[in-house]
């Protein structure tokens, strides 16, 4: 499992080039891309046939199931003590 915290200055690189590098490693089953400007996490999972599926968890009420490590990740805990501008 990889958790990548996205920086505003490198988001494009992280979402495209780094993501492809992570996906090329067969041992990696799950990749979380954590947005720092809003409570949004992109969850990439390797399927049995090797393809990747993506889901988006957005809102502090969302919970990401992580059966790969027998855990769950509530976004409220991930973003604890952070506040976001409401546009």
Task: Describe the protein.
It is a single chain. The chain is of the alpha+beta class and 87 residues long. 21% of the residues lie in helices and 36% in strands. It has 2 helices and 6 strands; from the N terminus they run βαβββββα. The protein has helices at 11-24, 75-78; strands at residues 2-5, 30-34, 40-46, 52-58, 63-66, 71-74. A 4-stranded mixed beta sheet has the order 1-2-3-4, covered by helices on one side. The chain has a two-stranded antiparallel ribbon with strand order 5-6. Strand 1, helix 1 and strand 2 form a beta-alpha-beta unit. The longest helix has 14 residues, at 11-24. The chain is globular and about 40 Å long. The model has no long low-confidence stretch (mean pLDDT 93).
Short descriptors:
single chain, 87 residues, two-stranded antiparallel ribbon
Strand line-up of the largest beta sheet: 1-2-3-4
- The fraction of residues assigned to DSSP E strands is 35-45%
Note the main sheet: 4 strands, mixed
Instruction: Please tell me what the overall shape is.
Output: globular
Helicity level = 10-25%
| Distinct helical segment count | 2
Number of beta strands: 6
Distance between the termini: 32 Å
Overall mean pLDDT stands at: 93
Instruction: Report low-confidence residues grouped into runs of 5 or more.
Output: none
Counting helices, strands and paired strands, the structural category is alpha+beta
Radius of gyration: 13 Å
Order of helices and strands: EHEEEEEH
What's this model, at a glance?
With 87 residues, this protein is of the alpha+beta class. Helix content is 21%, strand content 36%. The longest helix has 14 residues, at 11-24.
């Amino acid at each position: 499992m990889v958790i990548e915290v996205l920086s505003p200055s490198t988001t494009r690189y992280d979402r495209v080039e780094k993501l492809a590098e992570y996906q090329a490693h067969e041992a990696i089953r799950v990749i979380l891309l954590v947005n720092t400007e809003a409570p949004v996490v992109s969850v990439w999972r390797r399927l049995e046939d090797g393809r990747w599926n993506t889901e988006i968890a957005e809102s502090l009420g969302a919970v990401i199931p992580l059966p790969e490590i027998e855990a769950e990740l509530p976004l409220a805990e991930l973003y604890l003590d952070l506040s976001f501008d409401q546009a």
